[in-house]
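Translate structure to sequence.
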C-alpha cells in the first residue's frame, strides 16, 4: 500500500470518485489535487469543480484534451487499422494513456508524490493507468483504492458517502443497469444486465446511434479526405481532428453504424462482455482501409496487417508508451506518406460500405488491369513467373514420388 502526502486524483465528479476523494483525505491523510479530463464524454464538467471545492480541494484541474486525444492518440492508432480480437476499435483503451500522462504532468507541476485512480482490481484500466505512469515517472506512487478498501458493494459505498456527508444523487441509490465509459471515440457499456452474454442489449441503452431498423430509409453518402494517413476533411470541409471525429459520429450515429457486442479477453485473465458504440471510428476505419487499398504497396500492406494484432494488443493492454509500440508506430507512420486522397462511403441501415476511392498517389493503374487490349502488360510473361514459383512444389512432389 503506497503512502503519500500529496496525490493527484483522476476525478470525474461522480459518486465513486467523490468517495475516493474523501477516502484519500480521511484514510490516507493526503492532500488531494483533482484532475478532470474533457475527452469528449459529453458531460458538463463544471459541477466536478464545484464538488471538489465543497470537499476542500484547493488545486483543481479541468483540462480540455479533445484535440490532443484525437490528434496524438486516436489518429496514430487508426493509421495502424488497430482492432483488438478482430473487431474492437479500442475506444476505452486509447483514452487511458492520455489521462495517465496528464496525471503525471500535474503531479510534477504540483509536487505531488502520488496519483490515484478509480479503476477496479478486476479490470484492464488499472493496468493501463499504472503502466503509463511508471513509464513516464518511474518513482511515482500509485494509490488504487479498489484494491485496498473494504467498500466492495454499492450499499457500502452509499453508507460511506452518507457517513462523510457526500451528496448522493437519487439515481445512484439503486443498482445501475450497467456501467459506461464515454469519450469522443466511443461509449462502452458493461455489467449488470449485460453480464449474461445470452441477453440482447436493450435498444434504449444506446446514446450515440439509432437502431439500424429506425435509421433513414434512404442511404447517405459521405466523403472523407486523407493526408498522410489522417482524415482532414469531411464532404470537402476541412476540420480539426476533434471536430472531424464529432462530425463522423453524427453521420454514423444517424444511420445506426458502429454498434458492437463483444465477449473479449481481459489482460487480467478473465473474459468480459462489453457493448460498444463507435460510429465515427467505424467510418474512419473503413475509409482508411479503402484509402490504403489504392496507395500502399502490396508487401507493405500485408506486413502492416500481420503487425496490426500485436499493435492492437499493446494498446489494449496498456503499453502505449512502451518502446515496442513506439517502434511499430514509426514503421506504420512511414507507410502513410502516400496515403492521400478521398474515400466515398455509403451509409445505410447500420452499414458503411465503400462506394468510391481516389488518390493522386494511387498505385491502381487501369491500363494494367483492364480486360481490354493493352500495350503495357505482356501476358506471356506470366508463364515463366508461374513455372519459377512452382519449381519447389514440383521438385518436392517428384522427390516424394521416388519413395
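Result:
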Amino acid at each position: 500500500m503506497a503512502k503519500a502526502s500529496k496525490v493527484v486524483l483522476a476525478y470525474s465528479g461522480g459518486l465513486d470518485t467523490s468517495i475516493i476523494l474523501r477516502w484519500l483525505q480521511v484514510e490516507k491523510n493526503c492532500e488531494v489535487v483533482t484532475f478532470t479530463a474533457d475527452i469528449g464524454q459529453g458531460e458538463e464538467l463544471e459541477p466536478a469543480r464545484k464538488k471538489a471545492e465543497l470537499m476542500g480541494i484547493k488545486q483543481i484541474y479541468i483540462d480540455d484534451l479533445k484535440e490532443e486525444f484525437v490528434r496524438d492518440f486516436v489518429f496514430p492508432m487508426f493509421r495502424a487499422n488497430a482492432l483488438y480480437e478482430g473487431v474492437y476499435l479500442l475506444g476505452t483503451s486509447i483514452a487511458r494513456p492520455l489521462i495517465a500522462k496528464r496525471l503525471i504532468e500535474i503531479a510534477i507541476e504540483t509536487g505531488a508524490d502520488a496519483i490515484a485512480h478509480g479503476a477496479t482490481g478486476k479490470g484492464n484500466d488499472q493496468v493501463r493507468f499504472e503502466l503509463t505512469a511508471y513509464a513516464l515517472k518511474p518513482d511515482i506512487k500509485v494509490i488504487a483504492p479498489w484494491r485496498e478498501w473494504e467498500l466492495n458493494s454499492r450499499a457500502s459505498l452509499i453508507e460511506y458517502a452518507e457517513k462523510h456527508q457526500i451528496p448522493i444523487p437519487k439515481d445512484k441509490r439503486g443498482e445501475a443497469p450497467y456501467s459506461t465509459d464515454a469519450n469522443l471515440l466511443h461509449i462502452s457499456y458493461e455489467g449488470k444486465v449485460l453480464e449474461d452474454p445470452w441477453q440482447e442489449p436493450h435498444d434504449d441503452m444506446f446514446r450515440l446511434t439509432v437502431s439500424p431498423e429506425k435509421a433513414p430509409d434512404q442511404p447517405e453518402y459521405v466523403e472523407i479526405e486523407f493526408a498522410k494517413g489522417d482524415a482532414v476533411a469531411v464532404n470537402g470541409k476541412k476540420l480539426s481532428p476533434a471536430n472531424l471525429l464529432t462530425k463522423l459520429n453524427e453521420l454514423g450515429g444517424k444511420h445506426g453504424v458502429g454498434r458492437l457486442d463483444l465477449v473479449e479477453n481481459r489482460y487480467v485473465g478473465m473474459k468480459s462482455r462489453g457493448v460498444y458504440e463507435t460510429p465515427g471510428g467505424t467510418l474512419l476505419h473503413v475509409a482508411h482501409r479503402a484509402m490504403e487499398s489504392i496507395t500502399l504497396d502490396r508487401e507493405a500492406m500485408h506486413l502492416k496487417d500481420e503487425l496490426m494484432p500485436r499493435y492492437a494488443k499493446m494498446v489494449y493492454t496498456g503499453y502505449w508508451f512502451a518502446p515496442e509500440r513506439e517502434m511499430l508506430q514509426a514503421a506504420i507512420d512511414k507507410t502513410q506518406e502516400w496515403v492521400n486522397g478521398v474515400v466515398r462511403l455509403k451509409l445505410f441501415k447500420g452499414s458503411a460500405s465503400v462506394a468510391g476511392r481516389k488518390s493522386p498517389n494511387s498505385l491502381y493503374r487501369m491500363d494494367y488491369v483492364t480486360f481490354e487490349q493493352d500495350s503495357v502488360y505482356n501476358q506471356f510473361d506470366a508463364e515463366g513467373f508461374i513455372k519459377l514459383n512452382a519449381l519447389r512444389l514440383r521438385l518436392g512432389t517428384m522427390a516424394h514420388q521416388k519413395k
